[in-house]
Amino acid sequence: MNGLAATDQELLDHAAQALEKSYAPYSRLQVGAALRSAEGRVYSGCNVESAAFSVGGCAERNAIAAAVRAEGGAMRITHIVVLAVDGSGATPAIPPCGACRQMIREFGADAEVLFRGASGSIERHAIAELLPHSFSM
Prior knowledge:
Distance between the termini: 37 Å
Largest sheet: 5 strands, mixed
Low-confidence stretches: none
Number of helices: 4
Strand content: 15-25%
Number of strands: 5
Strand order of the largest sheet: 2-1-3-4-5
Shape: globular
CATH class: Alpha Beta
């Protein structure tokens, strides 16, 4: 994580704290996310699984929901970080899923997304790069 800005490190720290609270008894993949809104406020979320699998929620969408709850529908994301730890304690590459990419895009057309890549280092991507043909109304 060397070379990251202090603000990036702050988001990584919040995401790491969130993943510790994750509820993942089925997948054993704990995920935490933290975002910074355009107002400069930080919100975090963790994944919460359910035996009814489709009912659970991703960390990214839970962080976005917390931000919208606090700031309203005009909230805009500038940065979001996603981290994960699996059942063996490894830290796998974990980019946002397609549903989360769409949600990030809706609340942050210019958002930067940080996550651990396949090489193990933290990667930074524009949401438009991760979701080049997003759905919009």
